[in-house]
Amino acid sequence: MTDSTETDAAARKRRRIRFVQHYFVNPPVRLAARLGVVPGVVLVETKGRRSGRKRRTPVGMHLEGDTGWVISEQGRHAAYVRNLEADPKVRVCIGRRWHDAHAEVVPDDDVDARLESFGRKSHSKAVRKFGTDLRSVRFDLASDPGDE
């Protein structure tokens, strides 16, 4: 199989996954995350890199003190990752509280080790199954929660 074929297959897989997540998975998960009823799932609010509008994306996050870790299934192909690369000032809703944060992709992080450190095997399996370009994203959270 050539690199072009692998790239084409990954792009087709990304499009299918993006469609299902955008229209079927994310809306109820976004609501559940906002209500704080799904442990380990948070909302990341970015500023649209072209529109400038607020974009809220549910993601699985592992907290280590004032640092949150996310494994982006689609890496830099994910819209929220491209948005935070354009403007790393984000907000994160953990439970029912918003926190200001600074986010960045960590390209040299060991994604497999990071996923294992989350301690949630079903989450790790899903990320690996549906992902095409796994990347670690670090969120440095402000100590004081931000405004609503």
How is the largest sheet built, in terms of strand order?
2-1-5-6-7-4-3
Q: What's the SSE pattern?
A: HEEEEHEEHHE
Number of helices: 4
* Shape, principal axes of CA atoms: globular
Distance between the first and last residues' Cα: 50 Å
Strand content: 25-35%
Radius of gyration: 15 Å
Task: Please bin the fraction of helical residues.
Answer: 25-40%
Main β-sheet, in a few words?
A: 7 strands, antiparallel
Q: Which runs of at least 5 residues are low in confidence (pLDDT < 50)? A: none
- Tally the beta strands: 7
Briefly note the structural class of the backbone.
Answer: alpha+beta
Mean pLDDT score? 91
Oligomeric state of shown chains: single chain
Q: How would you describe what is shown here?
A:
The protein is α+β, with helices and mostly antiparallel strands and 148 residues long. The protein is 40% helix and 34% strand. It has four helices and seven strands, in the order H-E-E-E-E-H-E-E-H-H-E. Strands 2-1-5-6-7-4-3 form a seven-stranded antiparallel beta sheet, with helices on both faces. A hairpin with a 2-residue loop joins strand 5 (89-94) and strand 6 (97-106). The longest helix is centred in the first third of the chain and has 33 residues, at 3-35. The N and C termini lie far apart (50 Å). The model has no long low-confidence stretch (mean pLDDT 91).
